[in-house]
Predict the structure.
Amino acid sequence: MSSDAIVIHELGKQYTIGTIPIGDTTLGESITSWIAGPWRRFRQMSGYDTRSTKFWALKDVSFRVGVGEVIGIVGPNGAGKSTLLKVLSRITPPTEGYVDLTGRVSSLLEVGTGFHPELTGRENVFLNGAILGMFRAEILRKFDAIVAFAELEKFIDTPVKHYSSGMFVRLAFSVAAHLEPEILIVDEVLSVGDLHFRNRCLGRMQDLRDEGRTVLFVSHDLTSVRQLCTRALMLNGGRVVDDGSPAEITRRYERMHYEASESESGIAVRHHPPPEYHIRRVELRGPDGAPTGMFDAGDVMEIHLWSSGPAPENSFTVEFKLLNSDDEIISFGSANPVRDTYYRSEDQHFVCRLGPLPLTEGSYALSFTVGVWNKERWDFWAKAIGFTIGRCDLFKTGHGIANINDGDFVIAQEWLIGS
Amino acid sequence: MLDLAELWEYRELLFFFVWRDVKVRYKQTVLGAAWAVIQPLTTTFAFTILFGNFGGMAKQVQGPYALHVFVAMLPWTFFANAMSLAANSLVGSSHLISKVYFPRILVPIAAIASGLIDFAISFVVLLIMMAAYHVAPSWPMLLLPLYLLGTIVSAAGAGILFAALIVTYRDVRYVMTFVMQLWLFGTPVLYSLDIIPAKWHALYALNPMVGMIAGFRACVLGGPVPAQVILISSVSAVLMFVAGIRYFLQVERRFADVI
């Protein structure tokens, strides 16, 4: 990178989150607090109250962004992502530290900021464009393109209050998509709208990246972070806890996420099973026989499955589907070949020995079905249990193979090398 | 101090804010912009009957009482409306303020500017009333823009100050309603400047609207120009403006956090 577009130096942002309530126990105390109340509230609103609870939404955040970098920021809710974008967009000042931005900045913390329902689509394009920092001449020049992109030629002179929410979002996004900033700051806007709309957003972001613009965006959608970004940061508790390639960071974030959930224990219990024949519990067991959600490639996984309830027929099968972290089905399994041998009673325990697992590093999930082969389904337990492949070094290179770069699995292979 | 270069850069946004306010103000109303005229006209009518006929004030003023009141009602309505629009403008735009950066001061300034449109419409009514009462326009009327400017500066000063206060202390909204009522009585709208003893004029003129309204009257109805009062009021208007802007700039950065 030749130069820095964004320099962030020891940034901190502190918020006051109200005072500790003082309980009134006697009538006298109630009266005193009622009289003193306005004074206390005045001090509190003016920011002089020392008893206020303060917390750091951001603390010691320092990083640089080179021109042309596309940075994805991930992290759990309350990690400080939105606060960071607000400070970068100059909406709120930092409590300490500083930010240097070089170039024309546009920030898009939501689509359609400033849209007025009483104004027509045409009028709102101009208003919203100006709010986002476009000049009138620029909007005039791009007007036809904006309307065409939103596919709203027929309704452009209708007040926006008569638009459907889809039309509204399309128009709003279309205006934003025609911004030409040197630095773009985007918050979660990709998460609104339907699939078609999301794909167009992604397409537009890809264009921006290819044009060499600097983009900083927050997203919960890890797939788009992996697709779009050249670098990713993970925020947690107001600090940058990780900085690296999008593949690496999103994988670590996913793992952190999974470790926090109960599915990582390797045990899943059904809370509200259907009355028909159903699966009530699933366990994943590792090579040592103990339940776990962490595996390495090459391990053999034992799936234990307990079912109960009245079966409508005595010939049925149990199936699973294996999903990757994008919720795509990547594999399938069925007990169908042995179905006639195992049906005995209402309560049943199935074991499936799966592996050696050819999976690459990342997180996966299993869905289960009980029913008649290719016909009726009595029970479907979607994403019943998740697990993580922590290490995949099937080629003995010493480097992991991650599902982001190299696909979800490795097919067993034999190489013959002649001279 | 005020970053004028930045404001210049954002001049188009200011234009769009004003344009939006004007467009939206009379949307879905039957009478539309006529409301800009109806408000000062009805108050003038009511006051003329009340104070002019029953209160006997008509005899104390020069020229027709209705015109006497309307000439003052014109800048006063603008002042009162613009100021309250400006004062509530920031809180009304809280959504914008928490999502986009722009110089915050544009919001109250746009509110004041949009009030000027209503003023222009009512001004036409003034001309019609002058014709009806056979008051010929005179050369001093060319000075009206100066007094209008003084009124704008006063409204901006007070409006910007109140706008910034209301962001943190919503109490100020309630204070404003009766401040405006008292302010009306402390301004020579319904009566003429002459009923205040001359020795109090200097103090009285600290209210900037005193000088501006006296100026409006002198321009339209003729009569002596109270130069001392107008001078003091002008200085007072400028001081109010500077104070409003200074307070605004001082707390502006916190807006997004407290709004």
